[in-house]
């Protein structure tokens, strides 16, 4: 079994530009994420129904992203289950 990919055949000039493009892209993404965190480090008050708290804006953004992600996963699972049961009924009705 080989776990390592072989270097593409041909001169080094064929794959070096792609490597540098990927590295530059990763560095730009890291710089953007750091700037995003720094710009959103202001403290904000979050008022929940039963309590209130102060936190950095970036944590509020991360919390909302997590809630949105979990909500999307749950809704897709509900839609998938509903689609399966509804599809089975339609399929049986067409046969019989």
Q: What does this 3D model show about the protein?
A:
Helix content is 66%, strand content 10%. It is mainly alpha-helical. The radius of gyration is 25 Å and the shape is flat. It has one domain (15-95). It starts with 15 loop residues before the first helix and ends with a helix. The protein has helices spanning 16-39, 57-95; strands at 43-47, 52-56.
Strand content: 5-15%
Radius of gyration: 25 Å
Low-confidence stretches: none
In total, how many domains does the architecture comprise?
A: 1
Shape: flat
Largest sheet data: 2 strands, antiparallel
Terminal residue distance: 52 Å
SSE order:
HEEH
Helix content: 55-70%
Tell me the strand order in the biggest sheet: 1-2
Number of DSSP strands?
2
By helix and strand content, what is the structural category?
A: mainly alpha
Number of helices: 2
Summarize the structure.
The chain has 96 residues and is mostly helical. The chain has helices at residues 16-39, 57-95, and strands spanning 43-47, 52-56. 66% of the residues lie in helices and 10% in strands.
What order do the helices and strands come in, and which of them pair?
Layout (H helix, E strand, L loop, with lengths): L15 H24 L3 E5 L4 E5 H39 L1
Antiparallel strand pairs: 1-2
Defining traits:
2 helices, mainly alpha, 96 residues, 66% helix
